[in-house]
Prior knowledge:
Elements: H1 2-15, E1 19-25, E2 28-29, H2 52-55, E3 68-71, E4 75-81, E5 100-106, E6 119-127, E7 129-131, E8 136-137, H3 138-144, E9 148-152, E10 160-170, E11 181-192, E12 202-203
Parallel strand pairs: 3-11
Antiparallel strand pairs: 1-2, 1-4, 4-9, 5-6, 5-10, 6-12, 7-8, 10-11
Protein name: Glycoside hydrolase
Organism: Hygrophoropsis aurantiaca
Keywords: Hydrolase
Amino acid sequence: MKLAIAPLVFAALANAHFTMQYIWVNGADEGLNNYIRVPPSNNPVTDVTSTDLTCNVNGLSGTGVSTISIAAGTNITFEWHQHAARTGEDAISSGHKGPVLVYVAKAPSTAASFNGQGSVWTKIYQSGLLDPSTQEWATDVVNANNGKHSVVIPASLPAGEYLLRAEIIALHVASTYPGAQFYIGCAQVKITGGGSASPPTIALPGAYKSTDPGITINIYNNLQSYTPPGGAVWSG
């Protein structure tokens, strides 16, 4: 009996996987997979030491991906879905609880040629466990918003080409490592205007550790607080 059920269980888990499929610029939908380094499948990354943690599988190059020009201070919305775009199902399976994070990294030349390696990433947004009494997570809000979450690009970032890295970490099987599921989408942008800030940076991979309390954690034991990996948010 167990052998008959197991394939169905694994299929259900696979079907619940998701990818970032759209970005919106100041409320304007930029279209399916435009300006995004699209991974080959909707499977998560689970190894925090892998270069797949940077921009997902096959995400070290943006060859063939266009770069969109935006002004510093722009509102960017990321939109995620389980399967091929807007099918009407939950964007993220309701069982996939966890935080939402957004990072930026300035390319030395073009975003398309940037592999995102080294200490180059700045965290500009995070949201985690919102209400311990109801166990509401950032992922619940993303689901309620049809797969969308937004961030304002700091106005003080210097002009140039960047990778925008949005990440959702699903913690439903994270009580042992590897268990946490990292869903990552990277978009290529050229920021105009801006300022002269020198924000703090971390490396991805590098900054995340398997022992981080935000990565290996049991979320089903009356959790009262949660600290996402990657350090503090830079306020800009």
